[in-house]
Structure prediction request, 113 residues.
Amino acid sequence: MLTTAFDIARNRGGPVAAEHYCADSENGDHVDNPSHDALSRLINDLNDTDNTLVVIQPDQDDPLWFASVAVLDNGGYEIVRRDTTRHEHDVVVETSTDHIAGDLTKWLAARTS
Prediction:
């Protein structure tokens, strides 16, 4: 069974800011409410020529939060997490796509209203 961040938050009794969010990559891939596995796949599909970025955000106008993963020229990925309601703006570099997907899944689950 695939677990989305929304499922994790719901099981903890907490709502998420948007029940519907999506991940979009530069090459046109679109995934609604992406699971850990879907995020891993989207990140693994990134390259340094024509698909350098994935953005995850609520499917609404003027979203209050977003996360992005971008390929770095020297290898690895830059992960940006921003939540204006919590005054969070976090930028990290990571190499493990599985670790990135896991961290993002947890971060997405914490987006409470």
